[in-house]
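REQUEST
  id: r-88c1
  op: predict_structure
  target: RNA polymerase subunit sigma-24
  payload:
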Amino acid sequence: MAIVESGREAYGWSRPVQRRKDRIGPDAMRGSGEIASEAEVRHGLSVTLPRLWRYGFVLSRQRDWADDLVQQTCLRALERHGQFQPGSRIDHWLFAILNSVWLNEVRARRVRFGQGTVEAETSLEVDGARETEAKVLAGQVMRLVGDLPEAQRAAVFLAYVEGLTYREVAAVLDVPVGTVMSRLAAARAKLADRMSDGAAK
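RESPONSE
  id: r-88c1
  status: 200
  body:
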């Protein structure tokens, strides 16, 4: 379908995604009691689609599966457009939907990748360098991230490519902030080892 093809065409790791404030509609600051229309959600999907496809590919590592994930995400978002609150981040809402679709698919297929976590306290030691690491990781690490466990791939993509905060990543993945920190710390350790091995060769 055209909506999926446009997401595919925008795929690529060489250009880190610039974080945007994807709030939909001209009246984004309306009262919190209002709900989004289907047209508003469609607009949000059109803006966020390339990033959704890329996230789907990070999770699944298969283009066809990424297509399916995005398609199901679009359908679910349109069916549940009334659940989105205008003025909030539609990209975060859509990422959360895609993540839920992915988890359901994984459970259905009885496929799970390792959680790959370390103690959350370990990540606190390197958290001060997060901004610098993010710039490096966005350009270099994505070539290696495909070999990480699924949970780490998702956290790395959302934090270092999409630029979400730990709390925002936790909200998308529906896990505690400490779990996000743990996964990122484990991913950093693995990626550092692999980059060191590559530099030594």
